[in-house]
Amino acid sequence: MSSSDSFAAARETARSVSRSRLRELREVWLSIVQVGLAAAIAYLIARQLVGHVSPFFAPIAAVLTLGLSIGQRGRRAIELGVGVALGIGIADLLVMAIGTGVWQLGLIVALAVAAGVLAGGGTLLVNQAAVSAVLVTTLPVPAGYSGARFLDALIGAAVALVANALIPSHPMRMARREFEPLLAELASIFDQLAGALTDRDRAAAAEALARGRRGEPAIATVRSALRAGVETTVIAPPRRASRSALDELAAAVDPIDFAWRNSRVLARNTLRSIDLEDPAPPDAIESVRLLADATRALDRALWEESAIVEARGAATRAAVLATAALADTANLSVSAIVSQVRSIAVDLLRGSGMNDDEALAAVRAAIDGAAPA
Q1: Closest CA to 259 of 166, 178, 187, 164
Q2: Which pLDDT belongs to residue 117?
């Protein structure tokens, strides 16, 4: 590659990264504004209304409650707020009693964590209690205990929770942001399996299987984002209109999860076909490529409802071509691939909004319609 080609490639990469970063910024700009406003309002209330001279912990609590939970609202924001206030309150009392130092820091943090566990909090609450305790223990000690820092923390956490309810993140955008890479990766796996069948490439099939096994955490992240989105619609009146769309998206998670699981079975069948030197007919290979097309269309359908038709069309064509491939071979390994393609086609149709009966009927109708008279 010439230096000019290298420069052009580097420039295009930089542009792509810049576009990606700007897109991410556009998606979270409201949350960023929310954090800034909450910090300023918390400071204003603590200083002007309550009369604290230097209410450091009011904006800190607001930022910790909201800033660390961009895209993770509802119950998580409450956990963060409670954790901040709990850690500051406990540490403030203990610093007055035993002072500061290395061993005091360790003891105070341990006790703050223990208090978080006893309070029944999750990981977020416990971690935030510990972080807040560290802040209090390492800052200069005030002349006497007045509870001001604890009160500031409560003010900051309360302002953050109110801001979360009045200026909430968009729950659908939050869920889509997690769903998109999941579907993009699944489509890429199908592409890789089609290439492995074409080239008889065992290494590629094995890599696709490994990628399929890494899908569980991504599925869990999507479910978590959907739960957070539902919580947002409950506590934030401006976002309640998104509830039905979130429910529709949530209904697609299980079918997509099944498609992920079945992609692993498809990868194992592909490996078996290669190991047994059973060549896959062109129609079987093309059917796997169509699964990739259907998955990409399903990804686009998160933003463009019209893409649902394209996704369903590609999924049913995949089932038709896979079935047609049986006429060209009697290999059991290829028959297993065909069976798996048809199963995944049904999964993708269900992910597009069809129920079980509708998805099965659509596949059967497409296959019957393509059969010779």
Answers
A1: 187
A2: 87
